[in-house]
Amino acid sequence: MPVRVDKWLWCIRFYKSRTLATEACKSGRVKLNAISVKPSFLLKGNETLQIGKNGFQFHIKVEQLIDKRVGAPIAITCYTDLTPEEEKNKFQAWFKGKAAAEFRERGSGRPTKRERRDIDDFKDNQFDFDAFDVE
Known about the structure:
Layout: E1 3-4, H1 5-11, H2 18-26, E2 30-32, E3 35-36, E4 42-43, E5 48-53, E6 56-62, H3 72-75, E7 79-81, H4 85-88, H5 90-95, H6 113-125
Antiparallel strand pairs: 1-4, 2-3, 2-5, 5-6, 6-7
């Protein structure tokens, strides 16, 4: 029995709500064979979908058609993830080598105006080699 693509994506927990799945289809982020599909497109099984979500490009193959939202352990049996590893690790590759998040001791409150100015001066001069007397 064919199932609407937006409903199936919601049933397998790829989207948190059916509305989000419908909007993804309408905006062209869900494709079948490089062609955007409408939310009402009927999946028949053994089809491969390309889904753009949060800056990632997922490739999933439909294994089983369901029309009711199920738990996560059952949902993962309904599709096969064909997404390349480099796409899955795109965020880690982008983040590698970046500076760590700033840290402030718990309970110390917000920085005062003077502390904020010191922080801004430090950040501005951190890579300004003209500020150092290097000969």
